[in-house]
Amino acid sequence: MKFGKIKFFLAALMLVTAFSASAAATKTDNTKTVNTKKVETKKAETTKVETTKVEWKKLEITPDLNGDGNKDKVEIEYLENGDKVQMRFTPYIKKASSFEKGKRVEKSVPKEKLGEEFDNITNEIKAVYTKKEAPKNEVKKDDKKPLIPATKPTETKPTEPEVKKNPGSQVEKNQVPDDLKNGNTAQDKVIKDEKDSTTEVVKSVNNSIKGPYPYIKYFLKERPKNLSFNYKYDKNSPKDMDEFVFIKSSTANIRKEPSNNAAVLKTASYSHKYKTVGKVKGKDGSGEWYEVYFDGKLGYISDSATIKREFDWSDMMHKIEKTNKFVKDALEKNQKIYVLDDYTPLGGGSGSSKDKYGNRENQSERGYLSSDFKDFINIPDRSIMSIVEETDKYVKVKIDAYDGKEYYLKKATRKLLKDTGITGEITRFIYIDRSSQDEMVVEKSGNGWNVVTSSFVTTGKDGGGSYATPYGVFLVAYSKPVMQYTGSDNKTVVGDAKNAVRISGGGYMHSIPSLFEPKATRNARKAATAKKIGTYPESHKCVRHYDDQIKFIYDWLGNSTPGNENGYRVPSVPTAVIVK
Q1: Segment 528-551, tens digit of pLDDT
Q2: Measured distance CA(163)–CA(24) in Å, rounded
């Protein structure tokens, strides 16, 4: 079992109780592994007694259980025993230079009912903690809220997050670690600080973090209900960064309050990313500030030092449903699903003309708004469409990605339209967000969809001899083990990138590219390029990935054309790429 997932699961059990806000903000850099404990059980047999060793797994976390500002301890042990999970929770309250041991809570839960029993377990834990006498400097506001430090009327309201539960919200089954779940989805809630790579346990998405200042805009929202998060590869996947800010300046201070005079909680650096809760007005006219959640607490960073970005699950699902509706409607009319096959290696037009969608003429065809062939958009290679009408003058096509409108292609273009063979809904999608420099990969799962992986990426830059990654909905053409590229003469191969997936024209999804020479510094140059992923568009048209990330996607796509003489691998099932 992965340690990070165990740690998340067990800490999450503690967080859903009525801990103080600071207990909910327990740092995982204070979480440590304790030596595994061996327990011997005797198994009776007819002729002998056999001793079997059973391994308990043990963790220690350090929350502030009673809100006195000191870090207490909770030792957590659990054992997978057949179809059950046995758990032990032992609290230790900090008293001066020692710890006072509290009452241990034990529970045995059937694995298939582990999620359902979360509330029962945490209620028992709460009963143990609430028996402890509160420090004298705390007041109890009511029976349903945790103890919070008393404040004087003149003091600033603390910036610890207030967690408001929606009716019926609880820790769901999807928070069970992989080695304890029976087919449930795992939707880990982890914040990743890019600077120190620590992780932080956070609330369920059914909860809302609220700060003490009025919001200009509040960002946190529920994810689509028909989307699960059972990641197949999550090494590069930010788990609770649906809304985040990207640090665009060399350094930026995260402060305790939205004011330039407030205490500095942390100094952030360029390219770091932080979960953002909302945007608030600064105190004393100090502009606008993003409220960020990091290291288990709230802080504030000036909007002048940041760019707001997101993993837009809702837009992704909207576009997936829209594309599949387009496919369904076309098939019901006995219309085939086509793609424009207009790839010309090292060619395909100058790209001087850019349309209203930001697409240039490079490796595309003109789609005219009427049969007079005057006004047009640029339809990129691999765009998905259906044929509505054909005459001896034109071919009228419908393209869902471009406002669902119909466009006229000149008759000579008809030979470039290739039948995809699609006979039903598309079940695999890759969603690339150029504005946020990130990517989500999903596939059909039952009546809903599941997130396979997600990551930051680098998309194409428009200008200076390069092209923006085109906007639209495209069908993956093929993958190949290595993509080579040429120098300025368009002849000499000067570099390469591995695990290349062609999505539109010469636009590939691929690993970190690099020139062959100078050979001695190649690895260092690749590492420098990798550090820029998730910052700004920089490629020539392609979508750069971390090497391990694209290798996973390359394998996930599969191969329906083994033995191809060029090494091309057509995906095992049709896979669409949505570029926002």
Answers
A1: 999 999 999 999 899 999 999 999
A2: 9
